[in-house]
Amino acid sequence: MMDIDRPKIEGSVAVDGGRRRIGFAEFGSANGRAMFWLHGTPGARRQIPTEARAFAAENGIRIIGLDRPGVGSSTPHSYESVSEFAADLGEVADSLGIHEFAVIGLSGGGPYALGVAHAFPDRVVTAGILGGVAPTVGPDAIEGGAMRLARAAAPVLRVAGAPVGKVVSSVLSVARPIADPAISIYGRLSPKGDRELLSRPEFRAMFLDDLLHGGSQRMEAPFSDIVVFSQGWGFRVADVTVPVRWWHGDRDHIIPYSHGEHMVSLLPDAKLFTMHGESHLGALGMSVDIITELLAVWDQPR
Question: How many C-beta neighbours within 10 Å does residue 34 have?
Fold first, then answer.
């Protein structure tokens, strides 16, 4: 596995009156415009492409990756709805001295990014969603995709998710020798777009670094994500008023492209970027373009 640069700063912040902690990793400039990067399901705080890290360092941008509760350095916790995550991120932002920021959500991080944008319209300048999950219940719901299976599994995971997560983290703590081949096998079984991305050494290194540093500590968050996504989000999509930019592959085999079209149709200020021929992970290969677009939105009069 190729070497990958460590975060500039890495640690955890107390939230919820000191009862829990949220892990974070910073890349780029400590004094730059801040962007919170919310990982996919599964994932952790280091699931940020090396190209995005380098671009941030070269252009004075501050990127902060967060562990959701139950992975990496974050305390396990079950949200009643997606919207509850916003309070945790707000406390992290306050502790790091950040008032105004953008938020980026990959796949399972997408609902949380929208929840933060809904909760803090005066602080979130823009939100970028990369193949984000759509609601599975309620008036904003859409059928199909992997979340159909996840919704069916949610009742079991409410009980078994935490024990299964502990087993997975125990396996990952000794899995380094087989992790790289496992990523390669997953890539070969994926559609062309994801297969090509996972064949690039820097992306394999990023995924492995994130998995082994976050997942080997604890791995309950993915199961908590599935449970909370199967419930109401705690807000209506149409009530997210900040500018949203949405990237979605038209060959996405996990979250169908139609879900991205559906969500953009509900959002009052949104633009859909179609990634032709790309699948679920395609946006990770466009991270510099994505950050550049969000900065352009940031520079517009508000």
Answer: 23
Q: How many CA atoms lie within 13 A of 188 on its CB side?
A: 6
* CB-based contacts of 241, cutoff 8 Å, min separation 6: 121, 268, 269
- The dihedral built from the CA positions of residue 167, 173, 177 and 181, taken in this order, carries a sign that is positive
Specify the residue for token string 């306050």: 94
What number of other Cβ atoms are within 10 A of residue 90's Cβ? 16
pLDDT tens-place string over residues 244-274: 999 999 999 999 999 999 999 999 999 999 9
169-195 pLDDT, tens digit each: 444 444 555 455 556 666 666 788 888
Say if strands 9-15 and 20-28 run parallel, antiparallel, or are unpaired. Answer: antiparallel
Q: CB atoms < 10 A from the CB of 54, how many?
A: 15
Burial 216-230 (b: 16+ CB within 10 A, else e): bbbbbbbbbbbbbbb
